[in-house]
Sequence to fold (116 residues):
Amino acid sequence: MPYKPKKPCAYPMCPELVDAGARYCDKHKPLDKRRYEDNRLSARERGYDRTWEKVRKMYLVEHPLCEDCLERGIYTPAKEVHHIEKVKDRPDKRLDMSNLRALCKVCHNRRTARGE
Fold:
């Protein structure tokens, strides 16, 4: 089965070709990650402080099973608490219990990847 053609590295003026699905060549991958982390606010600055940790813990005690899995009839322990409305969009609903959803790691990653 033929492979997809390689494409240029996304780093400006880099002549290297990368496999389909990759953005950067091996030389520029660390630079891109560092740039992302340098510009990102810390968890505390994004609103995940001590108060959030208490609310999260309390929510997981009240909702010990993943709510997405429960809808499919699967019993999976919840490890993450997901904000239905993003904190950056609605900081006033950061600690609102009606804006939270208990999820397992897989379901949380799935929702986060979809941009929810």
Helices lie at 29-39, 50-62, 67-71, 105-113. The chain has two domains: 7-39, 50-113. The chain has a mean pLDDT of 87.
